[in-house]
Amino acid sequence: MTEDAPILEAIGINKSFGPVHVLHDVDFAVYPGKVTALIGDNGAGKSTLVKTITGIYGTDSGEFRFEGERVDLDSPKDAAGLGIEVVYQDLALCENLDIVQNMFLGRERTKNRLLDEGSMEQAARDTLASLSVRTVKSVRQSVSSLSGGQRQTVAIAKAVLWNSKVVLLDEPTAALGVAQTRQVLDLVRRLADQGLGVVIISHNMNEVLEVSDRVAAMYLGRIAADVAVTKDTTREFLVELITSGRSGDVGITEEATL
Fold first, then answer.
1. Is 74 helix (H, G, I), strand (E, B) or coil?
2. What is the mean pLDDT of residues 19-35?
3. Which CATH class is domain 1-83+166-258?
4. I need a labelling partner for 163 at 20 to 30 A (CA). Which of 81, 182, 256, 257 fits?
């Protein structure tokens, strides 16, 4: 697989819930070393697409390819086994546990039938250090004592601890202050610089333009456009794709939505 080839592809994905057709022939690609933004209005299908990629929802038709090979994503375990991890907006952290305990929750290391605290603590430190995280004083801090930005950092570190190859981030800067948002966006770029395929779901077009290499815009369950971000890509262009599925000569035709 070359750097120009997608590490993860969704091809012709369809998904319905009863009579409601939520995803329509969706093609979506994630590239190693790149940040791909997945944007769209509420109800556009972003969360459903992510949940099919992570094995939470099955698909009605279509296929997934990982590193060029067709794969079945029938459960979150299947996705995790390939190295696909997701950080949801609620972070899924336990406030009464410390950073190490959260990072290894459900995947604890043992030695002689006892928790291998030393190994887990060192791995947590190494992972945070590899991501150049300097805002956490101790890996034994309780999550309840952390700021919003620090919690997001821990959730992302937890996702990349398991030799991940693709990380999906759902609104990672929501409800964060300016300084904390800066820390998280820098971390997102470092993940890509380490060769991971990163997907960021966001409603903040300024952040999307700053941190992303590509943007996939969804409209009414379809991919309206998948474009590279250049210096000429504007916020107005992305907003038009989100709100009408088309901007200029880019996007879906009216016939396609009928």
1. coil
2. 97
3. alpha beta
4. 182
